[in-house]
Amino acid sequence: MFKPQYPRPDTYTPATVRPAPAPIEHPASASAPARTPGAVGSLVQQSPGTALALAAGGVLGVLALASVAVSLLLAVAVTAVALSVSSVVLLFLVRALRQEFKGH
Q1: Is the pTM of this model over 0.90?
Q2: Could you identify which of 2, 37, 46, 92 might form a hypothetical disulfide with 42, taking C-beta atoms 3.0 to 4.6 angstroms apart as the criterion?
């Protein structure tokens, strides 16, 4: 009754699928040297306009992150001011209630 009963282990064994090797293509002309594409060069042609676009994208990314950071700091500052104002108001209310009870 109090003896634990463990479930039977799974008997499923996943099938291993190995991809077929890719065929090797030989270049048409053996005299031309094989060109290795660069990381960016294979996607986009390198030109001064491309470099300018990448630089502009980087600057825009930094500006976006800076604006998010400034807005977060501004939210913290507004919250701090609101808490300090509410604490001063609460302090005045407590002092007014104490003076009212001292008079009676």
Answers
A1: no
A2: 37
